[in-house]
Write a structure and sequence with these properties.
- About 40% of the residues lie in helices and about 0% in strands.
- Helix 2 packs across helix 3.
- With about 80 residues, the chain is mainly alpha-helical.
């Protein structure tokens, strides 16, 4: 189980209160935007070595759909 993805767009990675993030993600100094989400979804362990919630999606169309969903469900 991971942190809530609500309000993900523009949020600094590894900052949701109450969730125990890996030190690698806390130190990554990245914000969730389309470009970083695409890199994360392509291969999270390569994008942020040492992260523990790893994910890979090779299909760029599927990554785009996931990103669109995440960003379209954010508060306006």
């Amino acid at each position: 189980v991971g942190p809530s993805l609500h309000g993900l767009a523009g949020r600094k990675a590894g900052t949701v209160a109450g969730f125990n993030y890996s030190s690698a993600l806390k130190k990554a100094r990245l914000r969730w935007k389309p470009e970083t989400l695409d890199k994360w979804l392509t291969d999270s362990s390569a994008f942020v070595p040492g992260s523990v919630m790893n994910f890979r999606q090779a299909d760029s169309a599927k990554r785009a759909a996931i990103i669109a969903y995440l960003l379209d469900t954010q508060p306006n």
